[in-house]
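name: query_chain
kind: protein
chains: 1
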Amino acid sequence: MERWITLNEQHQVLICNECKAAVRPGKKIESHFRHEHCIKGYELTQILHHVEHQPLQDPMTAALPTDGSRPIPGLIVYEQGLSCNECRFLTTSHDVMTRHWRTVATHTESTARYTKVKLQSWCKGRYTRYWVVQ
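structure:
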């Protein structure tokens, strides 16, 4: 079981150890492992049985850990994260930060625009919501 999944008990989020990202609960668990990792039969049944009675949170809406917390094992740590110095905007993309910075009305030319930080997220892709880790 440890090869495929880790349950983060503090946040009640299921983490796929292959993807290094959280998996949505319910039928999405079966779909993820069947289609992303081609797991079927006994192995898939074991994964589903292991989590069937767990009160899992949806990583797309689950509360984020506190900024500055320790990294959550099993998730990717983005070493090149950026944090806006005017608000809580977080990203791993310099281009996205540059576009964001243009929308911040209170900045001055002498103000540092962002700080380099380490980030984590429950999900990858368009549903990414980051938090800062130590």
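note: The two ends are 29 Å apart (CA to CA).
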